[in-house]
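# nightly structure sweep
# worker-07 picked up a monomer target from the shared queue
# config: single-sequence mode, recycle default, output format = structure tokens
# input follows
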Amino acid sequence: MKALITGASSGIGKDMAKYLATLNIDLILVARRGKRLEELKKELDVNTKIIVLDLSVEENVYKLYKQVKDDNIDILINNAGFGLFGDFTETDLETELKMIDVNVKAPHILTKLFLKDMVKKDQGYILNVASSAGFMAGPHLNTYYATKNYLAKLSMAINEELRCNHSKVIVSCLCPGPVDTEFNKVAHGSFATKSAKSSYVAKYAIDKMFKGKMIIIPTLKMKLAIFGIRFIPYRLQLIIAGHIQMRKTKK
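# output follows
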């Protein structure tokens, strides 16, 4: 088997690459930071190809597909993404638009293109990395929450379409809570709650993906939280989410 992972230079993407390698699955790793990809490649005992691309550029997303479409990809993991803490009136618009390009447009395009190929073969897996944020609105992390809502709901809808069509292709969506990655550094903030280990989340997600799970939530705490919010009025949800996103602004 062969897997393509975006955002593979750090965090969940990096740990997914390591875990897939232990399953003897060949890899195509995509990220902006070529040096980190080279370092990761040296750690892996499977055939590994690295591609250095900035997926915030739409042209590069199509370029990636064209570059690997004949490589018989069995698993697509859309992991690239980032966030930005701050009130909506204060955050940088260009950064937010770039976030939408990376968190929404890139996985949308890649899912569309690779899914068509997988449906023709009637086999394959797509794992979209969203967040527990995909079930709520998020004051102080507003655009990020919105992008993850998009990815979670898109993945769920496609999963149901495939089920109705009796397809063997699986589309799953990973929705963890806070994870110990570089997210806080990039987003210029910090979570007030304890983060799960990236290696644990990566292994859990891939194991559940292979079992055909649609929504993958790694910890019991987050399972209970996401289940519970459906019984809470929207205003109270917003108040809770706002408190969760209490952050220290990076100077």
